[in-house]
Amino acid sequence: MNHTALLDRTSTARLQDLGQQLRVDSVRASAAANSGHPTSSMSAADLMAVLLARHFRYDFTDPHAAGNDHLIFSKGHASPLLYAMYRAAGAITDHELLSYRRRGSRLEGHPTPRLSWVDVATGSLGLGLPVGVGLALAGRFLDQLPYRVWVLCGDSELAEGSVWEAFEHAAYHGLDHLTVIVDVNRLGQRGPTRHGWDTAAYARRMAAFGWHTIEIDGHDVTEIDRAYAEAGQTSGRPTVILARTRKGQGVAAVEDAEGAHGKPLPDPEEAIRELGGPRSARVEVKPPPAQPQRPHAFPAGQLHLPEYERGSLVATRDAFGEALAALGAARADVVVLDGEVSDSTRTQYFADAYPGRFFQFYIAEQQMTAAAIGIQARGWTPYLATFGAFLTRAHDFLRMAAVSRASLRVAGSHAGVSIGRDGPSQMALEDLAVFRAIHGSTVLYPCDANQAARLTAAVADRQGVSYLRLTRGGTPVIYEAGEEFPVGGSRVLRSSADDQVTIVAAGITVHEALSAASQLAARGVSARVIDVYSVKPIDAATLRQAARDTGRIVTVEDHWAEGGLGSAVLEVFADGTDEALPIVRTLAVREMPGSAAPEDQLADAGIDSRAIISAALTLARA
Amino acid sequence: MNHTALLDRTSTARLQDLGQQLRVDSVRASAAANSGHPTSSMSAADLMAVLLARHFRYDFTDPHAAGNDHLIFSKGHASPLLYAMYRAAGAITDHELLSYRRRGSRLEGHPTPRLSWVDVATGSLGLGLPVGVGLALAGRFLDQLPYRVWVLCGDSELAEGSVWEAFEHAAYHGLDHLTVIVDVNRLGQRGPTRHGWDTAAYARRMAAFGWHTIEIDGHDVTEIDRAYAEAGQTSGRPTVILARTRKGQGVAAVEDAEGAHGKPLPDPEEAIRELGGPRSARVEVKPPPAQPQRPHAFPAGQLHLPEYERGSLVATRDAFGEALAALGAARADVVVLDGEVSDSTRTQYFADAYPGRFFQFYIAEQQMTAAAIGIQARGWTPYLATFGAFLTRAHDFLRMAAVSRASLRVAGSHAGVSIGRDGPSQMALEDLAVFRAIHGSTVLYPCDANQAARLTAAVADRQGVSYLRLTRGGTPVIYEAGEEFPVGGSRVLRSSADDQVTIVAAGITVHEALSAASQLAARGVSARVIDVYSVKPIDAATLRQAARDTGRIVTVEDHWAEGGLGSAVLEVFADGTDEALPIVRTLAVREMPGSAAPEDQLADAGIDSRAIISAALTLARA
């Protein structure tokens, strides 16, 4: 098919008819659910009809085929339209279409990868485009395959900064296989958008960022077809198609009307009549090119994790960086993403050794995180790293990664007050709470370099979002190289039959706990010390045993008092068994820190050995 | 002084000399601390010298004077430069300058409002400009005063999407009293920026967004002075000055050098010699206009909170919206910020009644939150609202609000699985964990409309970040209008001398708990029910009493199992006492939800009355 040729009259009519079918099915699905966003689906129906019938290359019987195009509904609330496309493509039955938003149905209110044709969950606006950038980066630099990435955006979501991080990044890399289709229906949820139908206002901005821009009537299938063809022929830069559309197009009662967002149509039967009645056209979606398309593979070798000598002082961030480089040598699937702090997080070691698998996002944590979601959707194994504090900038996308069932490995360096003089803006003090409350997450917090190296490798094959909490300053190496640290485990560092109190620590506070236990021993108090390097899942059995043995637990963490290590330990004892809670005292950061030397920060926060001793003595005597 | 006139030779020399003084003092402060960012300070020294000496209008003896200009160091790591300016202005002594980054010093590594001349804390890049937009909005629409807002940005931070939310928003409102100065020193922390010294690349983007752009040599005081004058004369749109500079300017050892970021100079003595030695010029900063400048005031009246009839079904988001409108009538200082969901959060009631104090940010949660930080810095009382889930998009700025000692009232609607069919992308399931782990925060979660109205009013005068968690669907009104709900309190809804178990709930689960308790009573089990509407601070005394009385506690929350209500209750019992430690079982959301009706969601998550009954029976029999 020659995309540059104008459509003939038959094709035009067929495409218009398909657009109406997609509208009808969006209305039907929403009516069946008595819930959903039919009007937001109807505005984009013609855009998607032409894409599906003439430009999208996809094998619905093999959603993981390497050559498949990718389609992301960044405006995830238009899910009825997506599901209507699946029906038209023969991927789902009409019966399943009408299960939309019902309990147990995989046709959720917003698309998720419970459907195997959905790469990533959307529904938080501003996410789909930066994820699309990740997929396009994977296509160009990792898979080295010519698949195209199509992203359908709403106009409202162009207000999100994450979208502009993506516009910048995609143009910088000349991602010409990425095409963004903006459904400019001029109406947000609550009323008119800022720029209404002024597609030129958007085009000016995007062109300034380096994109090829095309403005069209989004209900004219000929213009739409021409725009997709032009996008396909544009090289060296990505294309955005700004399509003027009408929300609720085709049904007078809701067309271009305020107050019709996110609601089933008032009279679906009448609307379906107005749209020409139900249809069941089947679209033969073109498969990707027939020749076997194997994604590019990088060379791989043996894993030789770095080893550190007991007693030496090494920062866990250093060990993380060195282990990551070792993983890069051993595994061809590992890729690393940086937010312009590779010198601090030590991902620079990987960057220097494997520049082809290292991605620099500059200071754009949302784009970095979204790209990792896109990259893992193509089967790669991404690690991303920045200061733990700045991961809060990407919290929404980390939350959505869980909805996407995405597997990401996230490293947050410069955790806690122990960073010292830079002050609170640079200190991650909420990251344990953040990552623990991400569904299906793993949260690890190494205290020494050998442990950090092991845990860095351990998360490579872990499902879900894994978090590694890293410390800025050097800490003593207390474990031998080669020791194992299974996820979900812990290490009992001091223990005896007459322990009177248990000190539970992780990361930097393990060393304070060991120092405290030595001093307590000198004062005749025997303290057990547990290193809970696996904060989630946590080693409940060992903690329960300690509670039985000592009855008294002091937890100590370089983190706010809410939701972190102390909470994780307490939650172990909240499973409703007939054992009451042990006596627990949580030591944590409770006042806003300022600037000071690391040791002064620990003292001022009341999480140093002295504070532990004081708490342990009080408990042991209770 | 005529700003359009060229500077005479004496003025030029004096300004150049002041720039050198600011450099010397940046070097001295960093050397004294053996820590800090002198090179990032030196690039912007001439820019700040000209601003301080000729354009900034500020009364250092009265930092809260309404007419004062505002200066935000968005590149907060250049704090040595800011403190050098304070010394030059006579605000701090040389002795204090050299306390930089020392324990106890208010000259922290990144500026905070511990210094009364600092409006907001910075240090998380990409924050200062959107906060500046908030101050400029306050100046134009609330205070209605002609003060200017000056924001010093680094070039690296232009990669942050939050900055582009701000560029869009400021141009949309024609904030011509806002001037952004970008210190384009071409070097980020780790190496060159994406666009290097290509100021035209930035100018194209900013002009496309509607800004007046000026490109200058950032070390030429005449060009700098002319640019500030031009900014002052530009009306109808904000101005950005893109200044090409050299990092470490003036000291050959570090000038324009990679690897010199964030470190004191290798040889400070030699550097100071090279810069011409220490100086002590004192700048007479021009005060704001002499005539008394009173900020504009809106009319105010009496507070008549909405009242709801017991037994009726009302959503707490409705009560929030109506209470907010009532507050608007009573208090002239209350302003409301929306992220394009005012129909859902019900802030539309306020918008309709008080459009002059309502700010629409479209879907830009970071700009919305940052603007609230800026607006409260001028003494106003902002409430901001969106879906609780989407507040994760602004998490970094909420974190920084605490570092800023800012007082914000944040409402998150559509909390939990109980929203029903929209699915997990729209459900706030981590918001209690997020807001509890913000330093100094208040976390409230009303279960009925009368309580929601009271709590909405209660946070108006609360210090710090206050969070109101709101429910989408209608819940039964169980409290009388006019009842008081003090922050830090709770309500015991069922209680008797022979209670065998305590059910602790908040928000939507209070109703499930009441239903469970009735059914338990029918089965001969007496259950106490506590409504902990104040999740932080939590009513420890009442919970302790329940533990003493019943020994068994079931917590139930529409939130992930980590860091939320259950953790808050457990933390009460972690103060190291051995008194009355209960058996606890936490009911919470533990599997990823899909789409379903609200009641099915509660059942599937195991947080409905049936699940509570089952847990309570197990515990009561234990």
Largest sheet of chain A: 7 strands, mixed
Number of helices of chain A: 22
Percent of residues in helices of chain A: 25-40%
- Low-pLDDT stretches of chain A are none
Tell me about this structure:
- Two copies of one chain form a homodimer.
- Chain A is of the alpha/beta class.
- Chain A contains 22 helices and 19 strands.
- Chain A has a seven-stranded mixed β-sheet, with helices on both faces.
- In chain A, α9 (221-233) links the parallel β4 and β5 (239-244).
- In chain A, α6 packs across α14 (365-377) and α11 (316-330) packs across α17 (449-458).
- The model of chain A has no long low-confidence stretch (mean pLDDT 96).
What is the strand and helix layout of this fold?
2 copies of one chain form a homodimer.
Chain A: H1 9-33, H2 38-42, H3 45-55, E1 70-73, H4 79-88, H5 94-97, H6 128-142, E2 149-154, H7 161-172, E3 178-184, H8 199-208, E4 212-217, H9 221-233, E5 239-244, H10 268-274, E6 313-315, H11 316-330, E7 334-338, H12 342-345, H13 348-353, E8 358-360, H14 365-377, E9 381-387, H15 395-403, E10 408-413, H16 431-436, E11 442-444, H17 449-458, E12 465-469, E13 474-476, E14 491-494, E15 501-505, H18 508-522, E16 527-531, E17 534-536, H19 540-550, E18 552-560, H20 565-572, E19 583-589, H21 598-605, H22 609-621
Parallel strand pairs in A: 1-2, 2-3, 3-5, 4-5, 7-8, 7-9, 9-10, 10-12, 11-12, 15-16, 15-18, 18-19
Antiparallel strand pairs in A: 6-13, 11-17, 14-16
